[in-house]
Amino acid sequence: MEKQNRKGWLYLLPAFIFLGVFMIYPLVDVFVYSFEEGYNSASQTFYDTGMYNYSYVLHDPYFLQAVKNTFILVVITVPVSTGLALLISLALSSIRPLKELFQTVYFLPYVTNTLAVGLVFMILFKKTAYSDGLVNLLIHWFGGSSVDFIDGPYWAKMFVLCFYTVWVVMPFKILILTSALASVNQVYYNAARVDGTSRFRIFRKITLPMISPTVFYLIITGFIGAFKAYSDAVALFGTNLNAAEMNTIVGYVYDMLYGDSGGYPSYASAAAILLFAIVLTITCINLLVSRSHVHYS
Amino acid sequence: MERQPDYNQIRKSAHLRRIAGNVAIYGLLALWAVIVLFPFYWMVLTSVKSYSSYNAEHVPSFFTLSPTLQNYADAFTTVPLGQYLINTLIFTVITTLIMVAVITLAAFAFARLEFRGKNLAFTLFLSLMMIPNELVVITNFTTITNLGWRNTFIGLILPSVTSVFYIYLLRENFAQVPDELYYAAKVDGTPDLRYLRKVMIPICRPTLTTIVILKVIECWNSYVWPRLITDDPDYYLVSNGIQEIRENGFGRENIPAMMAAVVVISVPLILLFLIFRKKVMEGVARGGTKG
Questions:
Q1: CATH entry, A52-293, from 3.40.50.300, 1.10.3720.10, 3.40.50.620, 3.40.50.720
Q2: Minimal CA–CA distance to A251: which of A276, A264, A268?
Q3: B79 Cα to chain A: minimum distance (Å)
Q4: What is the pLDDT of residue B186?
Q5: pLDDT digit string, tens, across residues A94-120
Q6: What crossing angle do the helices spanning B164-175 and B118-128 adopt, rounded to 10°?
Q7: Which of A86, A269, B33, B173 could form a disulfide with A34 if both were Cys (CB 3.0 to 4.6 A apart)?
């Protein structure tokens, strides 16, 4: 038995070492950092402990801007992408010819490099001195006037960011929803058809309750994912997100840690913990709300 | 006499309604397919337009009559795109190999071996799944910097060679292998490691393949950690490479060459996906995130 004990832990050892060094220790350390005031990464000294880092971060206009951007992004993209994915999955599950082709095409954004394809979006939306870009061409066709989506007004930049985020997250949602829809027992639909129930009523009274756990799962992961948005914004607006007014909370954390305004791991830690607190709160609210709306069979 | 309902009329209108419904459904699906595919079309199209013809277009044109591969040559000669690709390949292969070894051993311990503290350790592992990367990245950055591992492959690779979630996924699969096989092997005096290699891994190959594919996608696209850890272009991965190209590469205006680089970066994963389509989609449905 003693030998078995040693062997078991021996097999776990590599995983434990890596997790200990790169997850458990940092998790403790990030809280320590966040309370160390005036930490200097060169000399590794600090002069006091307290809440100053949090107060600094909460009064930093860049952080407030990042929080605002992140919340707008979350509030727009989560409902839009979930709703759109539901609509597309319903359409997908009601057809037979070409279904596989559509599924394959819809999945493509998942396997692309966010930074690389973001560059394509930037070019599609960008307005330069010599060309208005493709999206503006479309706007012209419909009689609008051109807008610079990359360096222009705030709402335009936010629109591009939301659009790209939805484009990126859709494959995952469509995939999960399609398989949830496929697993609904056909018996319910047949019974409803015998009763002559309308399509909309079938959707509301059968489909939606049956897939509600999946929808809810997507909403929770969607919230968490959208709160951590960062690379999409970098892909569109470049690394200096503060200048573009398009920073996100995660972006703020990394900027504080490293980059032009970097070198402040304490501020970064405080911001990261604030982000984690926000995400945790929202997830708890989601869980509470779901109790009355989700039907687990 | 009671009037007979006109069955023909009813059938016809039902038929029409079904057709209209189908048109709407296919219309919606086609529209989204266009939105998904268009950026890919545009990047390929732009990458084969010549620099001068692209810049001469005040109104972007939807096709080109004189495609050129010059931009691809530029992408490999003017900027070190080849270097970025090789770096990413090294990073991806080594990270995936180490990770598979680490998680296989851990999953085997949790699924098959009996030892004191196993349940406690497993609970601890599971609770680690909830920890967001953003919280730990700050200290990891400091750790790697203090070890002097910035701009090295070790620094890039080590923090991402374990995944609690994949250990969990693999353990669940290992646990399904019947105990009898293990006892039979024990009676024959087979060592555990050999049993793992000759029995467990072959049986659970589908799950391992899924994990490998997901990890490869993750590695190929990783951006945040490589950006923190490397500032020497010799160690850039493709994501950072493309950012570098965008900011100081060809000169900001050479969009066609940038698009050629984007195509080169995107193609490997798209090919991987098209070859292993079923596996990738199954894998993501079981354990993917990003959404």
A1: 1.10.3720.10
A2: A268
A3: 15
A4: 85
A5: 888 889 999 999 999 999 999 999 999
A6: 130
A7: A269
Q: Which pLDDT score, from 0 to 100, does residue A166 have?
A: 96
Shortest Cα distance, chain A CAs vs residue B217, angstroms: 7
Helical pair B81-111 and B70-77, crossing angle rounded to 10 deg: 70
Residues B150, B240 within the same domain: yes
Other C-beta atoms within 10 Å of B205: how many?
11
pLDDT digits (tens, 9 = 90+) for A232-243: 999 999 888 888
Residue tagged 């994915």 (tokens): A85
- List chain A residues with CB under 8 Å of B271: none
Domain boundary residue, one of B25, B51, B70: B70
Q: CA of B276: which chain A residue's CA is closest?
A: A104
Under an 8 A CB cutoff, do A265 and B141 touch? Answer: yes
Reduce the DSSP state of residue A48 to 3 states and report it.
strand
Which residue in chain B has the smallest CA separation from A171?
A: B291
Per-residue tokens: B219 = 């590695």
Neighbours of B236 (CB within 10 A): 23
Structural domain of B219: 81-287
**For residue A230, which residues of chain B lie inside 8 Å, CB to CB?**
224
The nearest CA of chain B is from the CA of A9 a distance in Å of: 8
Nearest to B290 among A25, A172, A268 (CB): A172
**CATH code: domain of residue B115:** 1.10.3720.10
Other Cβ atoms less than 10 A from the Cβ of B100: the count is: 18
CA distance B106 to A13: 8
Segments of A137-212 assigned E as strands: none
CB within 8 Å: A175 and B281: yes
B40 in a structural domain:
yes
Q: List Cβ neighbours of A281 (8 Å cut-off, separation of 6 or more).
A: none
- Distance CA(A265)–CA(A243), nearest Å, equals 21
